[in-house]
Amino acid sequence: MSKLVIVGTVAFDAIETPFGKTDKILGGAATFIGLAASQFEVDGAIVSVVGGDFPKEYIAMLENKGLDVSSLEVVKDGKTFFWSGKYSHDMNTRDTLVTDLNVLADFNPIVPENYKDAEVVMLGNLHPLVQLSVIEQMNKKPALVILDTMNFWMDSALDDLMKVIAKVDVITINDEEARQLTGEYSLVVAAKKIMTMGPKYVVIKKGEHGALMFYQDEMFYAPALPLEEVFDPTGAGDTFAGGFAGYLAKTGDYSFGNLKKAIIYGSALASFCVEKFGTERMVNLDKDELFKRILQFKSLTQFDLD
Amino acid sequence: MSKLVIVGTVAFDAIETPFGKTDKILGGAATFIGLAASQFEVDGAIVSVVGGDFPKEYIAMLENKGLDVSSLEVVKDGKTFFWSGKYSHDMNTRDTLVTDLNVLADFNPIVPENYKDAEVVMLGNLHPLVQLSVIEQMNKKPALVILDTMNFWMDSALDDLMKVIAKVDVITINDEEARQLTGEYSLVVAAKKIMTMGPKYVVIKKGEHGALMFYQDEMFYAPALPLEEVFDPTGAGDTFAGGFAGYLAKTGDYSFGNLKKAIIYGSALASFCVEKFGTERMVNLDKDELFKRILQFKSLTQFDLD
């Protein structure tokens, strides 16, 4: 069992999908990452910030999942980061209605002293300089640093983003972002270019079309589980990343073969996340359900050659 | 080794992609299906029609691949079906520039007498009444009838199409067509609806995102091989179907487990098809190359669970 540092947002989300809408509910990249990673009973710490308006029950829930929240800073007179979005009918696109950075605007992440030797660092989607600060606080080179980011930072802070990309082992981005970052349409060519920027592993998230991992000249593909109903896609990418990071921290094996398994675990966890609004499904997920879904992934993808 | 009946177009194509453009070259659904199936040395017959302008060398090439062309009708004073299309920069959409039906307008398919007991029938994309006529000429119920069709027939001949769909074991259509046919966005729900129309197996082609097969409550997913360069997508869907049908005709095993393997073979063959213009890559493909690519699919998708 290795230690895992998770940095990312802990937030309020208000979500509207064709199935309904929510008031402010628990959200944020670090929340989804932490909930997914907690399935593996990892020794994980959440590095984030919330305002005085953030319910203590949420923090207690994260602690109950075994997550260290000593570096989840509470700014008493500040307000928690708030995001609101509305999904299209087919759930493939969404409009952001509100982004109130609030306490996130001045977030200065502090890695807990006893996690500065963590083997795995999961950098959730945040300003690249915040992500960089977390890497620089580690007093031992982590075995695996995983970066999640998005097109917003490519548009607004590309130089800073490139500095972070140079320092990570794994990058997870979606297909359009891989194309934007490299100017290459072919994901194979794009992944090769990204490897020259720093990461040894490139994980391309394709939403309902699954995920594709590149390493040297090898590729691995995991489908998304086809579902009868996708209720709310919010947090699916973070859940995928959290499952990936959590499985690797649990096993402490950073070989390509084990990263494949981590991709499958991440995909399986993401398939639960979308079944309910926000974090609801992830908070109530048990190991038996996860085990059964992993078997579904096996039957979905495995074949025997003569 | 089972017999295989293939009905579909044999045509001239003129293609423009970002990589170049061709004059009239060999194309057509039955051509691509036949070339893919011939990789398995099946006893296959092509039922189609061409005009007097169709080069004898093309017919000789198909014969050399072991395909029976006795029911490839040549209308001496007619012209061969001609299609011309231009692909967008990302190859994901194409505009049809010309469709000259020519001899196809009055095509009356004749299944050769010695193929009327074929175990596998592959109905390539054509007017549903032509497809129906082929089914009705069989004097023994085939073990497996596979239907490929497209949105054009859903728009223009839905009643006829539904009659064919009711009589087949396998349908292959793309994701948008599955949605159009059922009015359901979820492919899982759409596939269930299509099963109530007749087919036991529903194969959803997702282009660069692979293929998804549904059978009862089970699913199987095969990715498309990620490629550095897609040169010309023309015929990839037909090649997929031809590989699928050819593998099944060769093995004579119509179990779900064997259909999974057939999907992988179809996907592997389609990945070659797009590497050159038209049929060029398929005409020159050898078994060793196919075997190597099947191993790539294995390493792309297979993982070990503890």
Can you characterise this structure?
2 copies of one chain form a homodimer. The first copy, chain A, has helices at 29-37, 56-64, 128-137, 151-156, 158-165, 175-182, 187-197, 236-251, 256-273, 280-283, 287-301; strands at 3-7, 11-17, 20-21, 25-27, 43-51, 72-75, 82-87, 94-100, 120-123, 144-148, 170-174, 201-205, 211-215, 218-222. Chain A has 306 residues and is of the alpha/beta class. In chain A, helix 1 (29-37) crosses helix 8, helix 3 runs parallel beside helix 5 (158-165) and helix 9 crosses helix 11 (287-301). Chain A is globular. At the A-B interface, helix 7, strand 14, helix 9 and helix 11 of A face helix 7, strand 14, helix 9 and helix 11 of B.
Summarize the structure.
2 copies of one chain form a homodimer. The first copy, chain A, is of the alpha/beta class. The first copy, chain A, has 11 helices and 14 strands.
Rounded mean pLDDT of chain A is 96
Task: Please give the alpha-carbon distance between the first and last residues of chain A.
Answer: 38 Å
The major beta sheet of chain A can be summarized as:
9 strands, mixed
DSSP summary: helix tally of chain A: 11
Principal-axes geometry of chain A comes out as globular
Structural class of chain A: alpha/beta
CATH topology of chain A: UDP-N-acetylmuramoyl-L-alanine:D-glutamate ligase
Strand line-up in the sheet with most strands of chain A:
6-5-1-9-10-11-12-13-14
Largest interface: A-B, 34 and 34 residues
Keywords:
homodimer, 306 residues, UDP-N-acetylmuramoyl-L-alanine:D-glutamate ligase, nine-stranded mixed sheet, 11 helices, 14 strands
